[in-house]
Specification:
It is found in: Cell membrane. The chain contains 18 helices and no strands. The chain has 418 residues and is an all-alpha fold.
Length: 418
């Protein structure tokens, strides 16, 4: 037992984890500029709720087209090398936006192409990234590690939109994308400094399998697992409903609260502010409740807070509600990720995360388009936010009566058999 504890301690305090954390936090800071600038740029070019919804379609479509293949492929190759290459490609792709603006050919359709290419590269990166955590920390520290990672990400997401809102006063909006491009290169550099392998066991000899066999194995594992199958169903429903509230945030704030561009940046930053505190304190929740119960409780709170945004015309009340909503959202994400990482063998993690996203993100673009169409036809953006929030609250409550709400017994079985 003492020997095992020393291993846990050494892995938890591994300098490679902090190199990983630093690089990804910087990358998230850069991407937060893009997350703020992209919908604002589309809104300025089109002023349309449908065009805002199409942005989500451009980012989710690659999962439907390539997700299963990329997930299986990412589990077969060097994950760290894959992350470095995709970071470099993402830097070049996002840099095309300010370059296009400079040459005068930037259009909303080119923005969609960039979003599509960026999302495709992100599938590769995220499959490897999700599988890297078990290589850097011990299972007992998954919640702590994911909490620290999300706290770093959330801090970056607070700073990015705030700085972006200030910078667009003095620089053209497309130039903000240069920051994201530079951050991808810094992320690639940090990964080059990491010595730890991101593979489950680099020296392990595995029987040769085809890519098709790997895809089928990932699908079967997710669909037959007593917890992952319920998580997949939950996300299938949530991703059909919830993305509308994010995709239409610029329109909601502009029309319902008459928000300025700077206030839009502040709103995006507020969505990350609550996540910083809750990310760092996430491990304390697990001392009292199961991972699944915390995730579902956080999702209920997120739904309730989303519904409440429709009941106020005060921008400052919206800011507070969106801050609390961001905290609830990250609490759900941390515990859903930690639960999955604890249950799934490391060799399958890349496939599991992409299979889950392929199966569940298929509804995201459809739901966002439907929400955008209804808003365009009725003009009732606040009513849509109320309906979205109440539906999420009800769905999360219902899932407390599934195995996901009592996941500890299943987690104990997986741990004992692994």
């Amino acid at each position: 037992m003492p020997a095992r504890s020393s291993v846990v301690e050494s892995r938890t305090n591994n300098g490679d984890f902090w190199k990983f954390w630093t690089g990804q936090t910087i990358s998230t800071l850069g991407s937060s500029f893009t997350s703020f600038a992209l919908p604002l740029l589309i809104f300025k070019l089109t002023g349309s709720s449908l065009f805002l919804a199409l942005t989500l379609t451009a980012t989710t479509l690659p999962y439907l087209l390539f997700g299963l293949i990329i997930g299986a492929w990412a589990d077969r190759i060097d994950r760290k090398r894959l992350m470095i290459v995709t970071d470099i490609i993402r830097a070049l792709v996002v840099a095309s936006l300010p370059f296009g603006a400079l040459l005068g050919f930037l259009s909303v359709w080119w923005i969609y192409v960039v979003a599509f290419l960026q999302s495709t590269m992100s599938i590769c990166f995220d499959a490897a990234n999700f599988a890297a955590i078990p290589s850097l920390v011990h299972q007992e520290d998954f919640v702590t590690a994911n909490g620290r990672i999300q706290a770093g990400y959330s801090t970056a997401k607070v700073i990015g939109p705030l700085l972006g809102g200030l910078l667009i006063v003095v620089v053209p909006l497309p130039l903000l994308f240069c920051i994201d491009a530079a951050s991808f290169l810094l992320s690639a550099g940090s990964l080059l400094l990491i010595r730890t392998s991101f593979q489950s066991n680099p020296s392990e000899q595995k029987p040769p399998t085809s890519l098709r066999q790997d895809i089928i194995e990932g699908l079967r594992y997710v669909l037959k697992h007593p917890i992952l199958s319920w998580i997949t169903l939950l996300l299938l429903l949530v991703n059909f409903i919830l993305p509308t509230s994010s995709a239409q945030l610029v329109l909601f704030a502009k029309q319902w609260f008459a928000a300025s561009d700077f206030q839009i940046g502040l709103l995006y930053a507020s969505g990350s502010l609550g996540t910083v505190i809750l990310s760092l304190t996430a491990k304390h929740f697990h001392k009292r409740w199961s991972l699944g119960a915390i995730a579902l409780g956080a999702l209920m709170i997120e739904g309730g807070l989303t519904a409440l945004t429709a009941l106020t015309h005060s921008y400052w009340a919206l800011l507070l509600l969106w801050t609390l909503r961001g905290g609830a959202d990250i609490l759900f994400l941390i515990h859903a990720y930690s639960l999955t990482q604890a249950m799934v063998p490391p060799r399958l993690l890349g496939r599991v995360i992409t299979v889950t996203r392929v199966l569940t993100w298929s509804t995201a673009s459809l739901g966002a388009l439907l929400g955008g169409f209804v808003i365009a036809q009725t003009g009732q953006v606040a009513l849509i936010y109320a309906v979205v929030g109440l539906l999420i609250l009800g769905i999360a409550f219902t899932f407390f009566f599934t195995p996901l709400g009592q996941n500890e017994q299943y987690l104990a079985k997986d741990t004992s058999s692994s």
